[in-house]
Design goal:
208 residues; mainly alpha; 9 helices; 82% helix
């Protein structure tokens, strides 16, 4: 394709990484899989993403900001030469060799956290699940977001039920909660209805 078109697509792809950190750091809601992985790293170190992170650990937040600023400057200055020389050479490596090195590094990293083989087996199990999902064309980012946000959702659900003394109707007790529930249902059900509507319109056209 045209170099200008490739540059435009890659520029927009890189630009959303920094903007995705805004809801991730302020609200604890990752917008992309990259932000979800970064939130996972914060949680591993005992840092709670959200407003409390700005109050209790402002050095971490400003560290992210300075990192992206200097990273953007270095990318402008060195990105061209690195992409055409160093990074391009990595693509010439045999895929089995490159994949083996990555797998070994992952195994070492997982085992070094707690020193337990169970963690390694767990990683291999989830890796197999991810491989099957990829072959079946299941999107992986929602799974990553679910793993990151699942703990938050469960903790806050228990808190809400304790406040309501075990009454589930407390989740629908005000307008704000009803609006959030309606938006959640719309986000989940909307794409399914849209897909079926598009498929139903394509069927008569194909028959005609």
């Amino acid at each position: 394709g045209e170099p200008e078109g490739v540059a435009a697509a890659e520029t927009s792809n890189n630009a959303d990484t920094a903007s995705a950190l805004i809801p991730a750091l302020t609200l604890g809601i990752p917008g992309t899989a990259v932000a979800a992985v970064m939130l996972g790293g914060l949680l591993v170190h005992g840092l709670q993403p959200g407003p409390m992170l700005f109050r209790d650990n402002p050095d971490i937040v400003f560290g992210f900001m300075w990192q992206f600023l200097f990273g953007a400057i270095l990318l402008v200055l060195l990105g061209g030469s690195l992409a055409t020389n160093s990074f391009a050479r990595l693509l010439n490596l045999p895929r089995p060799l490159l994949g083996s090195v990555i797998i070994v590094l992952m195994l070492i990293g997982v085992y070094s956290i707690h020193g337990r083989m169970f963690d390694v087996y767990l990683m291999l199990g989830f890796g197999a699940i991810g491989y099957v999902m990829d072959k079946l064309n299941y999107p992986l980012p929602p799974v990553v977001l679910g793993l990151i946000l699942g703990g938050f959702a469960e903790e806050n659900l228990r808190l809400a039920l304790r406040i309501g003394r075990g009454d589930w109707t407390v989740l629908f007790a005000n307008t704000t909660s009803l609006v959030l529930v309606a938006l959640t249902v719309a986000v989940v059900v909307g794409p399914i209805i849209k897909r079926r509507f598009v498929d139903s319109r394509k069927t008569p056209e194909a028959e005609g």
